[in-house]
Amino acid sequence: MQIDYAEGTWQIIQCQGCGEVSFREMWITSEDINPNGEAEPVVTLYPNRDKDNLLAKDFVVLPSKLRKIYKEVIESYNSNLFILCATGLRSIVEGICHSAGIEGKNLQLKIEGLHTKGYLTQKHATILHEHRYMGNSAVHELDIPTKEELFIAIRIIEHTIENLYEIEDQVDELRWLKERRLKKSRIEKQ
């Protein structure tokens, strides 16, 4: 196979729907011809825009270091870097324990500490052990989890973050909205 010509173009583009900025690389070669004789360019977008990609949730109350790790977990998932994603999920669990002031000689004891101190139910702590197992297997045994496994694990960690960090802020906002509505109602009755 010989390529007679190749032409590449590169662009910075912005989605007119969501506003996300991407880098587009487009190549056309003499080998990229469809059965009708028309050139079919090969287009690659960075970051990857696969239909299975996840969007990082905007956690407002989550400590900044944990937010950064969470975003890296989403990026590694979207880039099909599954070992990094699994270890990142384990790191988030470790960071949650650290943020809560839970100490222990290993992550197993720290997760149990989250339950003992009342941050998690026993069932939720048991679920987080799955993140520990997944991360340990990825690092020590080079056991690569599937995209489906990681998807579920990410949803669980998002639920954990919402439960431990975000829900209280949302409850405060709910109370404020309710008080504002009741105050407005009392003023209108006068």
From TrEMBL:
Q: Which residues form the DUF4145 domain?
A: 75-158
InterPro entries found in the cross-reference section: DUF4145
Domain of life assignment: Bacteria
Name the chain's protein.
DUF4145 domain-containing protein
Q: Which species is listed as the source?
A: Paenibacillus campinasensis
